[in-house]
UniProtKB/TrEMBL annotation:
PANTHER family: THYMIDYLATE KINASE (PTHR10344), UMP-CMP KINASE 2, MITOCHONDRIAL (PTHR10344:SF4). It comes from Sapajus apella (Brown-capped capuchin). This is UMP-CMP kinase 2, mitochondrial. Its EC number is 2.7.4.14, 2.7.4.6, 2.7.4.9. InterPro entries: P-loop_NTPase, Thymidylate_kin-like_dom, Thymidylate_kinase, UMP-CMP_kinase_2. The keyword Phosphoprotein does not apply.
Length: 447
């Protein structure tokens, strides 16, 4: 492989980077980027193919984020405009694989940040998920290892490597590289400029196609694409296909109980079921729960499809059991949706979809409970309970514990759910008092 080292920083000349033929082709359609910083704030920037004018001054914030003395690289996984479900799954798997590779070897000394590439107004397809790698040592080995990663990617379309450099005037530029037949070729060069923040986070219009599936068939299509490399996906689909597409709730009440880990949800659901002589169901159901760890290691689109289809299997069980007795459900669709939204939307609370957005609406083809209760405790109380549990944490449990912004986004998403919404229950008092409050709510709301 022939890896050509680019011009050194400080020798980047205006005429060379201003070749419109190279730049215009690489930059069309116009793309923007949103970078999630360690403090969960978002930085937006764009690429312009034109050379800087005499009045243009370097943007100090972008220079601090992307410029010297460190070296920054961008790597985004392309999604073909109008691509179907299969292309989305392939792109997600490539992104997932790159994430694991960028946490090893020479990349361990680098800062890895979440990067999203998108077109303004949702033009030209879905956002492209990727990474910004910031090398504090500007080590040539980092660039060489990145190009080797690129060369190993055989999927089409293959990702490009962006490399950020400053010219003598302090303007920041991005060179774009790709691998062709084992050779590293420059395919674009454009100036980095600030960009306005869009009214909605760029992933929000894409959520229904990627993680918060509006119906059973959309989620099913995702798992269908996975049967060749996840044998358990076929088994899940067979169980789903045994469930009627339209089910009706029986005459008895159905109550879903939601809550973050360590809010007392397991204890409360069991106690309520015992008190009401109700059937206790859980999502995902036991018939697919054995494969949970397999799907938890997959990209978000696959993981969320698994949990979404689990809800439809549970719905079939609810329909059957609620004809004979009350039903209590330990987590249901609200959990699937809230964790997906909080994970997929980068940044803080202000970047979540606004209240009453369609993403918070219950799927029309999924059986609804009569009541949804959301158990809450203070962050301090929840942390104390977690430390006393002594059980292995899932990835999301660990994220809830370590990242207060993520926890707040999950809680806010729960509170914005509609049709049905969540009734918040303070689970801080004693077990007996919480049980009394829950039973009183069920009696008043379900009757």
């Amino acid at each position: 492989m022939a890896f050509a080292r680019p011009l050194l920083r400080g020798r980047l000349s205006g005429p060379r980077v201003g070749r419109r033929g190279v730049c215009a082709g690489a930059m069309a359609p116009p793309r923007r980027f949103v970078l999630e910083l360690p403090d969960c704030s978002l930085a937006h920037f764009a690429l312009r193919a034109d050379a800087p004018g005499p009045a243009d001054a370097p943007d100090p914030r972008l220079a601090a984020l992307l410029g010297p003395p460190e070296r920054s690289y961008s790597l985004c996984v392309p999604v073909t405009p109008g691509a179907g479900c299969g292309a989305r799954v392939r792109a997600a798997r490539l992104h997932h694989r790159l994430l694991h590779q960028l946490r090893r070897g020479p990349f361990q000394r680098c800062q890895l940040l979440r990067l999203l590439c998108y077109c303004p107004g949702g033009q030209a397809g879905s956002p492209q998920h990727g990474f910004l790698l910031r090398d504090p040592q500007d080590d040539p080995d980092t660039r060489r290892a990145l190009l080797e990663l690129l060369d190993a990617c055989q999927e089409a379309p293959r990702p490009h490597l962006g490399e950020f450099e400053a010219d003598p005037s302090g303007q920041l530029w991005q060179r774009l590289w790709e691998m062709r037949d084992g050779r590293c070729l420059q395919v674009g060069c454009a100036r980095v400029v600030p960009a306005p923040e869009p009214p909605l986070h760029p992933v929000v219009p894409d959520l229904a196609s990627s993680v918060v599936f509006p119906d059973r068939e959309v989620a099913r299509a995702v798992l269908e694409e996975c049967t060749s490399f996840i044998p358990e996906a076929r088994a899940v689909l067979e169980l789903v296909d045994q469930c009627p597409k339209q089910v009706q709730k029986g005459k008895f009440q159905v109550v879903a109980i939601e809550g973050l880990d360590a809010t007392g949800k397991t204890t409360v659901t069991q106690s309520v079921a015992d008190s009401l002589k109700a059937v206790l169901l859980r999502s995902p159901p036991s018939c697919i729960g054995q494969w949970r760890s397999i799907f938890d290691d997959e990209p978000a689109i696959i993981r969320r499809a698994f949990y979404s289809l689990g809800n439809y299997i549970v719905a079939s069980e609810i329909a059957k059991e609620s004809a004979k007795s009350p039903v209590i459900v330990d987590r249901y669709w609200h959990s699937t949706a809230t964790y997906a939204i909080a994970t997929e939307v980068s940044g803080g609370l202000q970047h979540l979809p606004p209240a009453h957005h369609p993403v918070y609406q219950w799927p029309e083809d999924l059986l609804k409970p009569d009541l949804v209760l959301l158990l809450t405790v203070s962050p301090e109380e929840r942390l104390q309970r977690l430390q006393g549990r002594g059980v292995e944490k899932t990835r999301e449990e660990a994220e809830l514990e370590a990242n207060s912004v993520f926890r707040q986004k999950v809680e806010m998403s729960y509170q914005r759910m509609e049709n049905p919404g969540c009734h918040v229950v303070d689970a801080s008092p004693s077990r007996e008092k919480v049980l009394q409050m829950v039973l009183s709510l069920i009696e008043n709301r379900c009757n």
